[in-house]
Amino acid sequence: MHERSLVRTLIEQACEEQCSRKLGRIIEIQLDIGEFSGVDSTLFESAFSEMALAYWGRPVGLRVTNVPLTAQCESCKNEFPVQRFYFSCPNCKSGDVQLKNGEEIRLTNLVVERPLEFRGEV
Amino acid sequence: MSTDTVTVLRDIQAQKRAEAEAWRDAMSERGIFCVNLISSPGAGKTSILQAMARHWNGDVRMAVLVGDIATDRDAQRLASFMPVRQLTTGGACHLELSLVKQGWDDLNVTDLQFLIVENIGNLVCPASHDLGEHLRVVVLSVTEGDDKPGKYPKAFRTSHVCVINKMDLLPYVPFSLDAATDDAHRIRGDMPVMTMSAITGEGIPAWCDFLTAERQKWFGMSVR
Questions:
Q1: Å from A3 to nearest chain B CA?
Q2: Measured between alpha carbons, how far is B159 from B37 in angstroms, rounded to an integer?
Q3: B40: helix, coil or strand?
Q4: A49-98, pLDDT tens digit by residue?
Q5: Which are the contacts of B160, defined by CB distance < 8 A and separation ≥ 6?
Q6: How far apart (Å, rounded) are the C-alpha atoms in residues A59 and B156?
Q7: Counting Cβ atoms within 10 Å, is residue B57 exposed (0-12), middle (13-18) or buried (19+)?
Q8: Where are the alpha helices (DSSP H) in B30-86?
Q9: pLDDT confidence of B60, banded at 50, 70, 90?
Q10: B185 contacts in chain A (CB < 8 Å)
Q11: What angle do CA A50, A51, A55 make, to 5 degrees?
Q12: Looking at the partner chain, which of A9, A38, A109 has a beta carbon nearest the beta carbon of B12?
């Protein structure tokens, strides 16, 4: 159970992006979570709602996209979905495979309030 | 209220991975080969370290950082063999690099060949944390059952070598060495599987030779 530590990292990095890009208030954080990232999406979401409320003092949304585990065979270059965590190529049966997707925990988008436009002096 | 969706595409673990890489490089420069031992509780990690120390008998300079949720019992078991520091997490189920760095500072040793990190007994979370090791070792004991690799795929996929311990108990438990090996190889096809008994010492010399060879592969034959 290291979801809380990852949520803390996510909040810190979302705030870094907000500050460095001078963005408005964060309304929603969008995140990719890989099937093989070692993170349980449900636990992550419940830790996030609690910690986001404590940090910002208001609810902030979280939208998680689960990314399936895929790999590429080093021998025949076949790309395939990894089923039941058996890391061998269904085409040539080689066990020499590299993971392509499914390990990531990636902050993809921030949904932020658009700053009010300056309309000039009335 | 109108909103904007701003694209970020930031790997939130990239910073920690870079820190681990920097630590690995720093240790490599000093010729210190770091090994991260992971297993379920009671697989025999501490006993393996005792057996290694007995086998090397002072000829190889090693130190240990041993993680547990509570108590310093493992550090006490190892203290007569080698420099050791207990890392107590107070509840956290895995070690992180920051704790390893603290332990390293407390160890206050130089001129090592091996720094072994004995992780918290847990086959889940430790698999997700790079401690800057050169070699990750997953230890499985025959009393746990031969079906464990498939049940903990990340622990086995992210490890470089699998050790099967407590081979002295093999006649008494329903454990198939072939089934465990096949299961491990479905997850990582190139994974060496080494058998041993920390209690009888069977397989320990081959294990120590393997570690020495792995260190030489990283650092070259000229390194002491």
A1: 10
A2: 9
A3: coil
A4: 999 999 999 999 999 999 999 999 999 999 999 999 999 999 999 989 99
A5: B135, B136, B137, B191, B192
A6: 38
A7: exposed
A8: 45-56, 73-78
A9: very high
A10: 95
A11: 125
A12: A9
Q: How many CB atoms lie within 10 A of CB B54?
A: 12
Partners of residue B90 in chain A, C-beta under 8 Å:
none
User: A87–B157: do the CB atoms touch at under 8 Å?
Assistant: yes
Model ipTM over 0.95: no
Closest-CA residue to A90 (of A71, A107, A106):
A71
Residue in B5, B129, B187 nearest the CB of A85: B187
The residue behind tokens 């890392």 is: B87
Residue A67 to residue B197: CA distance in whole angstroms = 41
Task: Please report the pLDDT score of residue A1 as a whole number.
Answer: 60
Nearest in space to B129 (alpha carbons), one of B88, B99, B91 = B99
Q: What is the pLDDT of residues B141-192, one digit of tens each?
A: 999 999 999 999 999 999 999 999 999 999 999 999 999 999 999 999 999 9
Question: Could you give the CA distance from residue B196 to residue A36 in angstroms, rounded to a whole number?
Answer: 30
Out of B4, B12, B127, closest to residue A10 by CB: B12
Smallest CA–CA separation between B82 and chain A, in Å? 31
Task: Indicate the length of chain A as a whole number.
Answer: 122
pTM of the model: 0.92
